[in-house]
Amino acid sequence: MSFSKKILKTIDGILQICKNPWLLNVIINQNENWEKKTPDFYKKGFKQVSLDQLFPNFDGRLETVAFLDGGSLITDLLLLKNACKEFEQCKYFEIGTWRGESIANLTDVAADLNTLDLDINDYKTYNFTKEYANAHGFFIRNNSIIKQHLGDSTKFNFAGLNKKFDVIFIDGNHHFDFVVSDTKNVFEHLIHENSIVIWHDYGFSPEDIRFEIVNAILKGVPKQFHDNLYHVENTMCAIYTPKNFDGNVLKLYDNPKRIFSVDLKINVEQ
Q: What does the CA dihedral 191, 197, 200, 205 come to, rounded to 10 degrees?
């Protein structure tokens, strides 16, 4: 099967799930097959590290949260924000924009903001609906601070950026081949010795590991960096950090180790 046919098949599958949500059970069952392919050492996922371990001066404030399908958890967004705060004049690159919710929360903590997403021709090629295409980039339209790169990440010239980034967020197509491709490109072209790399949807939820992504990360990340891969507790994210932490193993239905406080305000979109 050609690469383009694989993409079309994947997109058709996504559209079918939208029409028939019960098909999600089929995907979850497929997760068991990916778990069987996972090396024994990672059968329970990556070692877990907490947000306060990663960031002792944790900042829990956010300005832009939609609480809609396809977005990130509050804790996912806070992971990105606090990672950027680790660097002065942070340089940030993101693969996969969706509504732009994640990068919109970083305008006060990063000086160089970049996002890569499909352009309008890609949406037409892959038969996405007009409504789906129009939803992309909602929060960052006409935002001159954010550099929007357009194109398919499997074809994009990452080397042409000629720049290294402090924080990189991989949140594009979540199927194995795409995550491997994005990960390899990031580690080959975009990181420096202190860079932080974050993958979204490492889990279906903070306690339900997505083993397709685990295997894709392990294949895409050079082996010398595998010891620095972690699952961030209370998030759906995996992280690569050059710092070393004492991690713990995920225990399903374990009692909460941390309780979060939330102060929520509603801003009505006009």
A: 160
- Angle CA(56)–CA(60)–CA(61) in degrees, nearest 5? 140
Model pLDDT, residue 270: 46
Mean pLDDT of 219-226: 98
Mean pLDDT of 197-220: 97
Cα(100)–Cα(136) distance, rounded to whole angstroms? 7
Specify the pairing of strand 165-170 against strand 191-199: parallel
Res 223 pLDDT > 90: yes
Positive or negative: CA dihedral 53, 54, 55, 60: negative
- DSSP string computed for 198-266: EETTSEEETTEE-HHHHHHHHHHS-GGGGGGEEEETTSS-EEE-SS----B---TTPPPS---------
Half-sphere exposure of 210 (CA within 13 A, CB side): 21
| Segment 135-138 long-range contacts (CB within 8 Å, at least 24 positions apart) | 135/98, 135/99, 136/97, 136/98, 136/99, 136/100, 137/97, 137/99, 137/100, 138/99, 138/100
Q: Are the CB atoms for 158 and 185 separated by under 8 Å? A: yes
Cβ–Cβ < 8 Å for 206, 45? no
- At a CB cut-off of 8 Å and minimum separation 6, what does 153 contact? 95, 96, 116, 172, 173, 178, 181, 182, 185
* Length of the chain measured in residues: 270
Strands 238-240 and 229-232: antiparallel
Q: At what angle do helices 23-37 and 211-220 cross, to 10 degrees?
A: 40
